Request: fold
Amino acid sequence: MSQSPLASSGPWDEVAERYDDAATEVMRPFSAHALALAELSPGAHVVDVAAGPGTLAIPAAARVARVSALDFSPLMIERLVRHAEAAGLDAIDARVGDGQALPYAEDSFDAGFSLFGLMFFPDRARGFAELHRVLRPGAIAVVSSWAPLADSSLMTLLSGAFQAGIPGYPAPQPNPENLENPEVFEAELRAAGFTEVSVRAHTESFAYDSAEQLWDRLTRGSAPLQLARSRFDEETWKAQEHTMIEYLAARYEPNRPLTTTAYLGTGRK
Reply:
């Protein structure tokens, strides 16, 4: 499989602070749903792979005995540690590392998560296999991936704005070989050794006061947009950004709900 530019830490380091401030708003309800699916006991020790700034790890640490959180972006881990300290949570072990070579012993955890992270791994098979390796027998894994863009009115609108403002910005194409295909998702969980596998769609709705607010909330912490922006000088980018906001303003009615859908795959060791 080809490697996504988002499989390196650079773009995520670039947006770590802004991602934490803005993009996690969309991620948070999916994290809450993933935690509910896992049905964690208070004494559980869980691992969060590609943990970002702690969108799942922080709420998990408030309900279980221990959370081990790992991300390949040092700046994301810095944000996570700050959140844990601010919340007075000492049950989190956060470290920089590779989700394809987890620094944990086998049979260590009662549950494992990777929300919108493993989907970008250069070698997803290794990522799934490593997650399986470090779980205890009977433990549950919960992994999420975005559904096709056509299933998300929110992302469809935003993608249209990118294409309107950024010359050569590619129109998104369905990719039946990645985890947006639930059959592939299920097959990769099973290939790693998981049983009781299920892949379910989950949809959340979001609304914004204006096109400008929508733009700010959804792009301030966008690693893909950061990659696109790096190709242009500041003056050119400002003109393009103006075009994109105008595109949204012409198509978005304030406070109209927009949806986005993810697949959540679960399996047991």
The chain has a mean pLDDT of 90. The first strand starts at residue 45 and ends at 49.
